[in-house]
Fold this sequence. Notes:
- The protein is of the alpha+beta class and 433 residues long.
- The protein has 3 domains: 3-152, no CATH class; 181-260; 270-431, Alpha-Beta Plaits.
- It has 11 helices and 9 strands.
- A hairpin with a 2-residue loop joins strand 6 and strand 7.
- Helix 1 packs antiparallel against helix 4 (139-166), helix 8 (301-308) packs across helix 9 (310-327) and helix 9 (310-327) packs across helix 10.
- The longest helix has 61 residues, at 200-260.
- The protein is elongated and about 155 Å long.
- Residues 1-8 have low confidence and may be disordered.
Amino acid sequence: MTPKAIRVSVGARTLLALFVVGLLFAAASTGWDLREDLRRRAQQLDRDLHAIPLLYTAPLVQSLGQPPEAIRALLEHIVRQHGLRSIELMTRTGEQIRAEADDGGDPGPSAEFPLGASGGAVKVQAQGVSLLQTLQHDALLRSALIHLLLVLLLGLAAAVLLDRWLLRQLRRLSEEANRFEATMPPQSLSWLEPDDHGPHEVLQLERAFAHVHSTLGGELQREQTRGRQLRDEILRQHHRLAEVERSLEAKRRELAALERHDPLTGASNRREFELALRREFKRVQREQGRLALAVLDVDNLKPYNERHGRDAGDELLRRLAHLLAEQFQRDTDVVARLGGEEFVVLMPGLDVRSAQDRLETVRDALRALALPHGARPAAQRNGTHEDWVTVSIGLAAYQPGRPYLSSQALLQAADEALYLAKHTGRDRICLAP
Length: 433
């Protein structure tokens, strides 16, 4: 019979599978029954083993005075009668007489019991209960298992043959589908042979597959066109996103700078100054070093703004911040704007005298600019007709022999010195007491 002659439905495989499952269930059921039979045989053997002393105690005691051949004959009779593996008689004098079964076998449970007042003992060992021994002694069970195995083998052979014949077309269809290239759909289906016949369901699958192949090419081309358009759009969006990311990064840097610097003058802001002050104060306390702090205030800035305008006042503050940045260029120096016209300079490592000298340089540099004030009261011109922009400075310093309890105490001391400079004529430097 050739595969072309088979005219069965694919559903036959389901029936075959059910048949095989039924055979396997029958095999499992038979195995379970066999296991139960072995368990019952073991229980029966155990009962028989414990019944032997009741049956043969008297004959064995009576045989103790007989010749060994007679005793061995009695023992062999007991072995054959009860299917034992061996029996051994031990007399009071230490003599041992043993009888064993002809076919041997695996050892099973054993028992030993005395022979009453005679002083002897008998040791009995039963045959081991195993599947092989059960089949050897039970011809009906052996025949049933052989037939069951034959049916299983025939069923599996039928499954293999039907799988090879019935599903050959499906396997060929699967192989052709695996070779299918989505971007280049085939124009013809090589598995559809004109003279090839197969199950009705398989032919339906082949026709459906052919229809899919015939319509897939145009759809794929349209999808490829849409894909190219989508890739171009994604590329454009990617460029736009990159530009937005660069803009956001610039804004982020700008915001980070604003968080640390005063937007008007570019100097550090109050938050940055307070962080630096706490850090340097802890260090100078730990190392018993020096730390100078100066608070500067532009004299009469409000009248200056009223006369020259707010923009001129802002420019004045920027020029003062630039002047301070030029004079204090060490990495450890901090120039910050506290607010309004007030600035602060943190000078780690400097004592009062060194810090005062540098601040005098700042005052001289500001006076050298000769920035006209125009609204300074005549009483504050120190007896001269000069009307320049000036600053008042309060200076405090942490140094050995003059410690402060906290950074805020140091800042407050500099503020009090600035207050003293303002009320003693301005345009001067006052030291904290």
